[in-house]
Request: fold
Amino acid sequence: MNITKEDYFQRQTTLPEIGKEGQDLLQKAKVLVIGCGGLGSPIAIYLATSGVGELHLVDFDTVSVSNLHRQVFFKVEDIKQPKAEVLANEIKKRAPFTKVTFTNEAVCKNSILNLISKYDVVVDGTDNLQIKYLINDACVLVKKPLVYGSLYKFDGYVATFNVLNNDGSYSCNLRDAFPEIVTKIPNCEEAGTLNSIVGIIAMLQANEVIKYITKTGRLLANKLLIYNSLENSQLKINLKKNRTVAIPELFKKSSYKLESCAHQEESLVINSNELKKIVTANNVEIISILNSNEVPLPFQVHQKIVYKNFNLNFFIPNYKKQYIIVCKKGITSYEITLKLKEKYPLLSVVSLSGGTINY
Reply:
């Protein structure tokens, strides 16, 4: 079927605020979407179908069963397939006027500056606080606008950071809102989330990108929008520049790795190679604190206790056992290990370092 741009974008170009000029701006734009999960997947689809000319998708992860309830552009048959690649193929089916490429790797400090320098706008669709700060700091250094989104249970947060002002200065960034990384905030896997709030925040992010590219409306620059889905309420917080934060120095010295991982005591962790050697031993008991019923491990899990339901008062220790606590990234499992060791000093208990994703 022969599809023309005029027909495809007719409803959008009818808007006088967009028109042909705005549509041409979208067609010329290059957008980088980092993270292709609950936020990133609908953002990418909507940006492509709005007419963004070039999209690049970045995600290291594969589709899992627990993703499907909120990452609605993935299907059951996509399980275990790379998210970025699957999403790119979905976009190709829907958006004939968008060039889409993808990278099946995680962003890292060594390559991110070169990566984002190629694009006009960067969109953060990740759920990892350290990576969010990495993306933010890199955008400040390379002078790229960043459309930020994050989630916590029924709340969502949206802002457009690092926008060039008329006087040559730049608007606030993530460190103006939150100067330091807070490691105690759980991600969606640990805290849980409702699928509708994920979609709402994704759409607000996509809307910010479209407004920025078409120079239409008022951006969430120097503001943080907080939306609560239970009350259907929103609050806009005004942000001010934090002159005490020196991002070039922070970028140089920070590893952007989980601080709780960096300071884990060697005596309280076990790596995957060490675990493989003892995994079948009779005295080893593996406890999974993953929130889903999936057990993405090639060995038997003896107990499943969801992290939020782990009550030390109900835990009955067996001092003849060696307990291995496992979670996805090795963070909450280490937290539980510390608590168990504090309550039962003589208990043999360790956390799987790096979590199940690195096994």
Residues 261-358 form a domain with the Oxidized Rhodanese; domain 1 fold (CATH 3.40.250.10). The mean pLDDT is 90. The two ends are 47 Å apart (CA to CA).
